[in-house]
Amino acid sequence: MAKIELVNASITFKTHQRKRVSLKEYLLRGLFRQSVNPVMQVRALDNINLSARDGERIGVIGHNGAGKSTLLKLLAGIYPTTGGTREVEGRICSLFDITLGFEVEATGWDNILYRAYLQGETPRSIRSKMNSIAEFSELGAFLNIPVRNYSAGMMMRLAFSIATSIDPDVLLIDEVLAVGDLAFQAKAKARMRELMSTARLMVIVAHELDTIREMCTRVLWMRHGQVVMQGPPNEVVDAYIAAMSATCAPQTQAA
Amino acid sequence: MLRHLSAVWSARYFLLALVKLDLRLRYRRSMLGIGWSLLNPIAMTIVFTVVFSQLFGDGDPVGYAAFALAGLAVWGFLRDAATQGSKALLMSEAYIRQSPLPYTVYTLRTVLGQAIHSSLALVVVVALVVFWKSDASVFLGLLVALPGLVLVLISAWAIATIAAFATAFFHDTAHLLEVGCQIGFFLTPLMYRRSMLDDRGLGWLVDINPVNHYLALIRDPLLTGHFPPGEWYVSGFILTVALVGLAVGTVGWLQKKVIFHL
């Protein structure tokens, strides 16, 4: 049973215009009220309600900075809620930022292990998967050398092969991943489709509206951290396109 | 807290694999490999025996070397837990942004690596004491020191966790810790014996020094093979509980905020 339940979920965090606060400033701020580095309150997600059960395919659309990726990270448990509640049941596979966090001095084989352990595998469960991961990545003998020497494309291949090796209940995808060269892209797409069909519950963030239309059972349109509209794909996507062209039209005329 | 610990436990394969990697990387492309961890205390022993025992010793060069080496191993472990541990969260940002593991996994990673490194220095101490006293009572001492070793390991994890969270918010913490450790080194009876301070009426400096509680529980039994007085166990235990409490408080307070500050 896979389940997503967000009730009034919000993420608010404070940040400073200059990124760091020094200890000196922190202490002084108490004495002299005026700070040269004012606090900015960022409301990344604002009262999101989302309830999804087995079999649903949810698409998230919206312009850049609308909070789509933040929503995915919240679902994955990486960002905490600062208000409301988050409940996700089932094994999560998240496909975003996958090239981060390689131990660059270790070999490809070792990195497969680390990643797999990070995803909750055990030494016993990983043994049977190692070879299929290696095979899918097509890196062959390169797996014996440190990841430091890999090209960006090779890292992406390895990361994708590991990340998609588990059988997830909940699949979280950010954008369509451009993985490696043409041949690998086709393979990756096939693997994604397979994952999407086996995962019980999926949330995908994408800018390609046609993909969203054909794939999803429900679409979430976000703006400024809030859900503008939620419903059947065609309805929401049409409304989104209408709203976009309404705001973009004057600009195109001016140009 | 129990749920937190069970989450750490479920990440054990990940954690141990990375600790192993850290140890391997520490001596990457060096000829001696892990031998350097042993050579370092051995070289120190020579210096202590030949030079420093003349300054601080009591006519027993090997005994003094064992004393200094054991003290430095414990001290170095706690120092590294604070200074290296303080960077743990910043250095693990990539993992933190990818996986919902509890943050204390990353501080435990640095602490476990240093624990293995420091225990090699203790191996040299044990060898020295066997040679020095030419009896095997040191193995009894090792057994007696065991509770102290467990306490110091737990404390180091707590210290590293507190330091790591503090550093994520204030980068100055790392520098403060280095200065603090420098001062601590001279105020702690590591190179000199406690009696030197007692003679000058400065014994209270040792009593209020938290590091000394761990030294009393580890260094002294290792060298003598005797149980330290019971009150040292009590105070060491209370100190450890206090540190753990502080770490639990820090994690509870900041774990929902820290990701926005990395």
Element order, helices and strands of chain B? HHHHHHHHHHHHH
- The residue ranges of chain A in which pLDDT falls below 50 over 5 or more consecutive positions are none
The amount of helix of chain A comes to 40-55%
Counted by DSSP, the helix tally of chain B is 13
Structural class of chain B: mainly alpha
CATH topology of the largest domain in chain A: Rossmann fold
Q: What spatial order of strands do you see in the largest sheet of chain A?
A: 5-6-7-3-8-9
* End-to-end C-alpha gap of chain A: 52 Å
Give helix % range of chain B: over 70%
Count of all domains of chain B: 1
Structural class of chain A: alpha/beta
| Greatest contact between two chains | A-B, 34 and 28 residues
Indicate the proportion of strand residues of chain A: 25-35%
> Biggest sheet of chain A: strands, sense, closure?
6 strands, mixed
Shape of chain B: globular
Main sheet properties of chain B: none
Q: How large is the count of helical segments of chain A? A: 8
Order of helices and strands of chain A: EHEEHEEHHHEHEHEEH
CATH superfamily of the largest domain in chain A: P-loop containing nucleotide triphosphate hydrolases
Count of strand segments of chain B: 0
pLDDT averaged residue by residue of chain A: 84
